């Protein structure tokens, strides 16, 4: 079937100003938005580049050799990321996830990890520090990442069959090397490891049961992600989404499942355990089951824009504050005002208003703000 690819509208150029209102907000770790949702989870994209071309994220036809990636000077430096992260933690963030693009392509990422590992939450604890990767460079880097202070990794893997996997990453990357990366991460102590599989109808449905079989009893939690209408280039269609309920029943036909309690508020995955006690699987159902009600995640783009929702059209320009000489107190106050004004709930609205509910069809790319 011919791929439907929609041309990229460059949202990186549009930004919202991060204002500095006169009524300053001093962080006390208790920040909440208009719907009472606290700020707990910060996802930081450290690069907009990737060595894969997953069709659901960076289709080759759009992200080709002529695609203009961000110039190095536009990226936040490690010092700038760390300075912002400190203010987010002061407002209550407990967990930091590095993502991308492919975060392991960012040169000297270990240095950033080392700096973030020194920070403290409002409770005086080190933040939970994790990273999402396609696993291609993990075999080489796992040990150094762990030594720098990374606690865990989540590895994306869309199938075990080599031909299916090579087709999904669209750069002919072999599955064996990702499996080696997962083994190296385990060896290095980067656990508990999670593996994320995006399921796309007609592409990798046949990998659901083999993946479940492979990772059950392994101590690794496999999570199935519904193919999302994120970004504006992947030509998303509802009929290519395999609902989590269907994935679950396909697995249960081979391995009976029982539902488990959520591990934390705002947890994106619904947890199910194998009835025979051989581990658990997760389902991230952002299309068929909205979970905006307790969404506590903020996303920082590679060039320092703050996005309040994965489906937002625009982000708030924090780099302008940083480079314009704002003090830490001013940055913290600006963050406070932005989060307090947050109303986003795209996944809840998708059902009633259609897939363009959030931003009139102009949405930021996943490779730019990370997952
Ligand atoms: N390159 C890294 C990786 O693939 O793990 C990190 C960035 S990637 C954007 C983060 C996550 O988003 C991956 O698990 C990927 O499978 C997921 N993702 C990307 N596009 C998606 C889409 N359209 N629907 C659902 N998940 C998607
Ligand atoms: Fe790259 Fe990750 Fe997007 Fe795949 S999902 S293209 S690995 S950023
Ligand atoms: Fe959070 Fe936006 Fe996703 Fe809702 S749609 S869960 S607000 S990121």
Which structural class best describes the helix and strand composition? alpha/beta
Radius of gyration: 20 Å
Overall form? globular
* CATH homology superfamily: Aldolase class I
Instruction: Write the element-wise H/E pattern from the N-terminal end onward.
Output: EEHEHEHEHHEHEHEEEEEEHHHH
N-to-C terminal Cα separation, in Å?
27 Å
CATH architecture: Alpha-Beta Barrel
Question: What compounds are bound to the protein?
Answer: S-adenosylmethionine, iron/sulfur cluster
Number of domains: 1
Helix content: 25-40%
Tally of alpha and pi helices: 11
Low-confidence parts: 1-7
Sheet-strand content, in percent, reads 15-25%
Major sheet: 13 strands, mixed
CATH T-level fold name:
TIM Barrel
What's the pLDDT, averaged over the residues?
92
Would you count the extended β strands for me?
13
Which CATH first-tier class would you pick? Alpha Beta
Please state how the strands of the largest beta sheet are arranged side by side: 1-13-12-11-2-3-4-5-6-7-10-9-8
